[in-house]
Write a structure and sequence with these properties.
CATH topology of the domain at 40-126: GMP Synthetase, Chain A, domain 3
Number of helices: 8
InterPro entries: DciA-like (IPR007922), DUF1159 (IPR010593)
Protein name: DUF721 domain-containing protein
Organism: Rhodopseudomonas palustris (strain HaA2)
Number of strands: 3
Structural class: alpha+beta
CATH architecture of the domain at 40-126: 2-Layer Sandwich
Distance between the termini: 85 Å
């Protein structure tokens, strides 16, 4: 009688186990930077910072009533230096005259930002500004709820800390 020999598959060593590397989140500005730069370039902006940092550049009072719309660069003439651009500002109707009177100051600030005389004049377009929606300020917590929570915090010796903790507790409870 013959013996039946069962053949076992040769066991090989297991391969290396795949371990994913660390997750690296990239900022949205890094992912969209080229797209945003292209969109701003179509409006004549060499750098998007003029738009994104407008309140810092123009000042809060001026920026509250106008915003950069586009920059218009004159066609270059061969052999001649590049002429400065015209900065087109969107201005709220009633403030157009005030912004026009501040045009020298705005030009100085913009050119100081660029580091050279990039802008030679302003053009104003009257239109509503694109306002960023602001969240309403949160209402303070109910004083009765603060007093009730503060009464349960007699283990806290510092009065200011007890009051702050009571306000925090009442706000959390309300939300």
């Amino acid at each position: 009688m013959g013996h039946i020999v069962a053949k076992h598959p040769v066991m090989s060593k297991p391969g290396p186990i795949y371990k994913p590397g660390p997750i690296s989140a990239r900022p949205l500005s890094g992912l969209l930077g080229a797209t945003l730069n292209e969109a701003f370039a179509k409006q004549g902006f060499a750098a998007r910072e003029l738009v994104t940092r407008w309140p810092e550049i123009a000042g809060a009072q001026i920026a509250a009533h106008c915003e950069p719309l586009k920059m218009q660069w004159p066609r270059p003439v061969e052999g001649q230096p590049q002429e400065p651009a015209t900065l087109v500002l969107r201005v709220e109707g009633p403030m157009a005259l005030e912004i026009q009177h501040s045009s020298d100051q705005i030009l100085q600030r913009v050119n100081r930002f660029f580091g050279w005389a990039a802008v030679g004049k302003l053009a104003l377009r009257q239109a509503p500004l694109t306002r960023k929606s602001r969240k309403p300020l949160p209402q303070p917590p109910d004083p009765a709820a603060v007093a009730q929570i503060a009464a349960g915090l007699d283990a806290v010796a510092d009065d200011d800390l007890r009051t702050a903790l009571a306000r925090l507790g009442a706000t959390i409870k309300r939300n």
